Amino acid sequence: MSPPGRTPMHNASTTNLYQMLQDANRNPQKYAQDATFVAALKSQGSLAKYTNAQNNIIAGSINTLKRVATTEISGGFPVFEIARTGALAAIQDHLARAEKANRSTKAGQRAKIEELEEQLLTAQRNCWQLTKALNEAMQDARSYAKSSGDPKIMELCKKEQRKLLRVFALFVQPDSDKE
Question: Is position 111 within any domain?
Answer without folding.
Answer: no
